[in-house]
Fold:
Amino acid sequence: MKSTLSHMLALLCAGLCAYAPLSSSAADRVPLLVYTALETDQIKAYKESFEKAYPDVEIKWVRDSTGIITAKLLAEKANPQADVVMGVAASSLALMDAEGMLLPYKPKGYEQLNPKYVDTKAVPSWVGMDVFGATICFNTVEAKKMNLPKPETWKDLTKPIYKGKIVMPNPASSGTGYFDVTAWLQLFGEQGGWKYMDALHENIAQYMHSGSKPCKSAGSGEFPIGISFEYRGNQVKNSGAPIELVFPKEGLGWEIEATGIMKTTKKLDAAKKLADWSASKDANELYQKNFAIVANTAVHKPPTGLPANYEEMLIKNDFAFAAKNRDKILTEWNKRYDAKSEPK
Structure:
């Protein structure tokens, strides 16, 4: 009897001992609220890779377009909800840093990151992940039907032949749209930039609330020309759509997808783990499946489907200008052009 009782107790203990760590692990898993503008077809792979490396942390995404996420973060300034911002435009993170919302942190492996794609302070408030730049998606089949020539420059898009044939992202809601506008203001000067956009506006059919949608619309033939970014352009082209990617000769606007920790997070250890992972070689290898240029210098391969000199085509971008003048630029843009924005 004593032997049977001992055996039962041993079995019970073994069961409890096997169960206890699982229960504790599940209970101790830290939910990390991450605001992001990453494309929906990217975030699943990023989440899986991070949580495999750090199984004690679970990412809870809040996803929207760059402009919406930026506005949400600024609106919540007095009572921030997010722990980390990841995959949001560097100009937006620079703006939040100026507002005192980000915690300076140098992630593990920082020395491997290209200094062109990180915050310039000794202890950075944000670090880059990857670079996305402008492209024009040109539907060759629809263009042939309409007898439209292929544009070669930004200024070509102001020619009367393209009236009503162009769609582009709304800069108030799309990071792609915002870097287009700030690039034109830098390329052509402030007065020349608004004059250019006035002329382009005559040919715009609609401003869309996504950086991807104009290229998807060009790919489907809804409109023959969509101003977008190279990742989505390559994806639409590789899906079999009859589009060519045009990289205007004046130079390309661009942005950095970046990561920063919110100063108010109560989950700092978990937030640092995500920042460390974001800067890692493993993470950058995932980014490079989507983008030609990534921040980690240990990860590099020639761009696929892009000009060999693609990186040289990117304009010298003033992120401080884009951050500091965001409200002023968007107010002016809305006043002039918002009447052609698609309904929200």
Remarks:
- Confidence is low (pLDDT under 50) at residues 1-24.
- The CA atoms of residues 170 and 295 lie 27 Å apart.
- Residues 2-28 form the longest helix (27 residues).
- The two ends are 75 Å apart (CA to CA).
